[in-house]
Each structure stands twice: as structure tokens, then as C-alpha cells.
Fold this protein.
Amino acid sequence: MKLVIASHNIGKIAEIKALLADLPITLYTQADFGIGDIPETASTFVENALLKAHYVCEQTGLATLADDSGLEIEALHGAPGIYSARYAGEPANFVNNIAKVLTDMHGITDRRANFKTVCVFLKHPKDPSPLICEGIWRGEILSVASGSAGFGYDPIFYVPELACSAAELSFETKNSLSHRALALAHLKQQLQKILT
């Protein structure tokens, strides 16, 4: 099976490729087909993932995997949520986004947060039954960034059971624990049924 990953995010693509490496599929990205960024205009993770999956699937005619992910912070009523990639405004980058989160969290003692991913898989553009899987990774927000691995908000996402930030984890360890790993584990079970 040929499968297109509906993303330009290099870190996300690397994680997805590693997690699906043992399936009999050939993976492409939307960049391989010259498809630019897709506006995320919906109000939920699942709707944004469906938007991206439908668009890329229609453009390529191939099975497509899309996800929408974000950081949800309890004390900020779920923010940055679906706006995680552009939380600090334009130009969108995670240096500014992290700085804004740390400013917003200054003096707040409730540091609970989670990363959330919703993955959507479409077999073809008119697929009436997309596969939809969700993963949640619980943690806390640090008061200062720590670590240089990973991407996005990883340097300020504290993983209590390992006593370090997500940016201090090896690629393999993160890929066994993360929200994306959990969502893709569910999706993988469904894909294996389709492929066999």
C-alpha cells in the first residue's frame, strides 16, 4: 500500500515513519507531491485532521494519514490546544510559543498538562469510514525549558515517571510513550487488518 503522510513537520514525519516501519507500506509526504500547507480552520483536533486527510487524499488519490496534535494545559483551560503551532502568533515558531506558555504560566502552581494527538486514515478520497484514533500523554509544564531533543513544546513538557522533559528523552523512548505513539498503536492494529 502507498500511504501519504499529510504533514510538512519533519519531527512528526520521522516519528510516524519509525512507528509504521514494520508495515508493508510505502510512505510518502505531501511535499513529495508538491502540496503546500493546509489551513487548519476547524475548531477541534479531529476536524482539523479530517480536513488535512481529505485534502491530501483528494490531491494524490492515495491512502492518507493525517494528524492534528497539540498541548493542552489545565490551568489555561486547555490552551494552547488546536492553536499550539501558532500560539504566540506570527511568525509561528516554537521558541516564541514556548516563551508565551512560560509567561502565561508564571506564578501558577497547577502545572498539569497533556499532549494530545488525533490520527485520521482515509483509504481513498470518498472513504465513508475513516479510521480515527486518539492518544493522550500526561505530564506537567516546567518553569524553564530543558533538553534539546524532540521538537515543539518538548523542552517544557515534564514526564513525571521518567523525571525529565520530553526533550531529554531519546527518540526511541519518546516514540514508545508519546501521544502520537499511543494514537498510532491503535491505528496500526486497524491497518494490519486492512493490509491482511
The first strand starts at residue 2 and ends at 5. The mean pLDDT is 94. Residues 2-195 form a domain with the Maf protein fold (CATH 3.90.950.10). Residues 179-195 form the longest helix (17 residues).
